[in-house]
Structures are given as C-alpha cells and as structure tokens.
Amino acid sequence: MALLADRESKLLINGTLVDGGAGGFATINPATEETLGTAADADAADMDRAIEAARRAFDDTDWSTDAGFRVRCVRQLRDAMRDHVEDLRELTIAEVGAPVMLTAGAQLEGPIDDLSFAADTAESYPWRTDLGQATPQGIPTRRTIAREAIGVVGAITPWNFPHQINLAKLGPALAAGNTIVLKPAPDTPWAAAVLGELIAEHTDIPPGVVNIITSSDHAVGAMLAKDPRVDMVSFTGSTATGRSVMIDGAGTIKKVFLELGGKSAFLVLDDADLSGACAMAGFTAAMHAGQGCAITTRLVVPRARYDDAVAAVATTMGSLKPGDPTNKGTICGPVISARQRDRVQSYLDLAIEEGGSFACGGGRPADRDTGYFIEPTVIAGLDNSARVAREEIFGPVLTVIAHDGDDDAVAIANDSPYGLSGTVFGSPERAAAVAARMRVGTVNVNGGVWYSADAPFGGYKQSGVGREMGLAGFEEYLETKVIATAVN
Ligand code: NAD
C-alpha cells in the first residue's frame, strides 16, 4: 500500500470502499500548502447509509456478544497499522504537519500500541458480576450485573492528533462491542480514510461494524448527534462545537461524551528550579505548534521572579524555530491551515491591544513565505483577566502571569472556564498539595507524565464530560444491566 500515491481516498460504508455523494475535497500539506490529493466528500445520503449499516451490524449480528472475536479483530487492526507504519508516518507528516519526532509517540506509534490495551481489557473484562442472593422486598433473588455495549457510536474527531483521537475512540468502542460511524475533521480526512482501507483489506471486522465518513460539510457530522439510530456520540473538538453536539443529542437523550478545549496552567512555586521549569514550559508550548488541547499555555510564576521567568522561557521558545516537519530535529511544525494561522495571529494582535508585549516571536517567521507557520511566542505583561489568558489559542503561544504565593497560584489556575490539565513545579510536598487543589483532569507534578493507555484522560468544567483511555475510557462505551432472578 502506497498511501500517498493513493490520492483519492474513499468512504467505508457497510464494508465497502465507495466514492462520496458530494464528490471529493482537497487535503492540503500545511508545511508546503500543496494539495496532496482528494478525500471522498460524503453527503447526507452517505451518512444515512453508514448509520443504517452500523445499526444493522449491531442489531443483527453477534458482534456485540462475541468478545473473543472482537479482541482478535482489534489486534488485527493494530497489526495492520504496524505493518504499514512507515506509510502512515509519511501520511501523518504530510497531512497533519506533525513533526516526525512526534510520530514515534502520540502522533502515531503510541496510539497504535494503545489498541493492545483496548483488546486486553475486553479479553479480561468481567462482563458479568454476581451480586449474590438477597431478599429485596422479601423475595429471594439472585442478582447479576451485566455490562453490555451501548449500541451505535457516532465518533466525531478533530485534526490535531488524528490517529490518537480516532483510535482512542475506535479501540475501546469496538472492543466493548459497539458499532461505529467515524467522522473525522475535514482538515485530516486521510488519517481516518486509511483506517477504512486497512479494516476492509486486513481485518475480519464485519461489514457495517466500522464506517468511515469523510466530509467537507460539518452538517454531515452533526447528523450523528441528531439521529435516533445512534445511541452515543463520542466527540473531541472545541468547546463551542461540543456545546452544539450536546444540544443536538438532547433530542434523543443520547449519551454524549465530550473531550473539549483547555487553557491549562503551568505553576512554578517559589521553591522550584525556575529556569528548568521555564525551559520545560517553553518546550511544551511550542510542541506541534501548540496544537494540543492539554498543552499548558499559561505559565504562572512568582511575582518576584517574573522578569527572570520571562527571559528563561523566551530563551527556550525563541530557539525553537518553526520548521519542516520531515526534519528529525523539528519540534514546532506548521499549524493546520491558513484559517488557523490567521486565528492565532489575531490573538497575537489582541495581546498587544490588551497591553501585552512579546518576549519572543509574535507572528509569521520572516524566512518562511510558504506553509502555515507561526513563531513560538511568549506574551508578557498581562494578568489572568486578559482574553489571551482565558481563551484557547491553539498555536505556539504562552502567556506568562505573576502569582503571589501558592494560594494565589491555585486561584489563577482554577480561574478558567476550562479544567483539562495542569503542571506544578516545586518542592515535592508543596507541589503535591497544590496539585490536589487544581480542578483539572490530569496534573504533571515536577515532570511526571500522565499520558498512557491505562490512564484516563479528560476534563473538568467546560473541558468535557467523561474520560477517554484507561478502564474508565473503556467503560464509557458500556451500559449496565441488573438481572434479578427469583430463587424458589
Ligand atoms: P472543531 O470543534 O471545530 O471540530 C471538531 C470536529 O467537529 C470536526 O470533525 C468537525 O467537522 C466537527 N464539527 C464541526 N461542527 C460540528 C457540528 N455542528 N456538529 C457536529 N460536528 C461538528 O475543532 P477542531 O478545530 O477540529 O479542533 C480543535 C479543538 O479541539 C480545540 O478546541 C482543542 O482543544 C480541541 N481538542 C480537544 C481534545 C481533548 O481531548 N480534550 C483533543 C484534541 C483537540
């Protein structure tokens, strides 16, 4: 399979690779602005057929009850992806603009490996638990708790870490016994379409169990949230779109699982190694051009050391020049599109209007006139009330904010509509106490790594509802049934 030579990707509907009813739409290399090829453009009729196929595969086959078969199929998908990993790497760098370095981890190989966790969990999962015999209301009864698949899952995903997010939904949802319609972002259709090819050609996953619908029209994805044949929507994307999905799902009281935006804080306590902490904060904020929902984009430092912190983080971010993602040393590639670049630039303009200044960066790099690049930028001189400190920018941009002690640092971290992630650096006891008070789903203490297949990921407040990955992420895709049998 030569993925990049296959310049017209298809939809997967009911086990067959087909063209889109609306023709095709271009997929663009964000580092070069070149058109890579086209993806099938699904229309409403395609989505309708995909939902119907998923419904029938759930209702009329034994997919949902044959856990052993599902485990084998998920492992086949993992193995097929491993067998094509170099083609997938080339595709990921070209379509996503992901630096090659990151494809060894969360951009590609990590999520492929994580399919093992989903399969292993299904293999050992206690699908039935005996609650024992009791006499509720005087009637001797044996009670069993059964865990069962929810049904048809509509998965809607963004463009920033497409394999990670597509597979963190597909793996557990399939292993748990659901059928799926996956609708990826229009910016990264091939990362999803290639799953359709691998599933059709290299796995025994039955027709209709997975359907892949690429579309340039967001309304085609919105059908998943409204359709009564879909039992659950699993969405990752912006908080604004998540809100719309939740409203659309309300009509049928659908389970709505949401992984949304963030504005996470990196807290440096006054007994931390300031320059080491600032170097890590700068590196993290520039990685993949800041296009990560859990990236810490507010650096909160002791007021007395504010200028030192700004200088230290500017040294790191100023040295991470945006570059060609095919180069092994690149940390900061392009942002995904001209639209996203202009959005980031508008926030940089806003930072100046709000009274801030740039300690490094501030716009497009002078040496790159093609590609959607933005310089890693440190904004100084603002407090946590500034819009650039409150709103998600999704570019390589970090705002440095002063705090007046641990209580104030916690208050600043929590003074956000979001609650996705956070970091704290300081002496172990104080850092642990601060971490415990942060209203977020994941916290890094002194450089600890929370991202792994067995650890749940998700947000408090407007960062989401539910958890992806880990056992909690598997169980999101299950219903609970109590079977009470009278005992004579
Ligand atoms: P987006 O919300 O614009 O789009 C996400 C997906 O929703 C795309 O597939 C899009 O086509 C679809 N969509 C758009 N409008 C829709 C509608 N009305 N109904 C149904 N689907 C619709 O987000 P994006 O720009 O693709 O991605 C960036 C955002 O995603 C950022 O806000 C980022 O924080 C968030 N994100 C969150 C996580 C997380 O796990 N919390 C992970 C990655 C990205």
UniProtKB/TrEMBL annotation:
What residues does the Aldehyde dehydrogenase domain cover?
Answer: 25-483
Which InterPro entries does the entry link to? Answer: Ald_DH/histidinol_DH, Ald_DH_C, Ald_DH_CS_GLU, Ald_DH_N, Aldehyde_dehydrogenase_Rv0768, Aldehyde_DH_dom
Active site at which residues?
E259
Alphabetized GO MF terms: oxidoreductase activity, acting on the aldehyde or oxo group of donors, NAD or NADP as acceptor
- Alphabetized UniProt keyword annotations: Oxidoreductase
Segment forming the signal sequence: none
- Reply yes or no: does the keyword Oxidoreductase apply: yes
Instruction: Quote the Pfam families the UniProt record gives.
Output: Aldedh
Q: Which family does it belong to?
A: Belongs to the aldehyde dehydrogenase family.
NCBIfam families the record matches: aldehy_Rv0768
Name of the molecule in the record: Aldehyde dehydrogenase
State the organism of origin. Mycolicibacillus trivialis
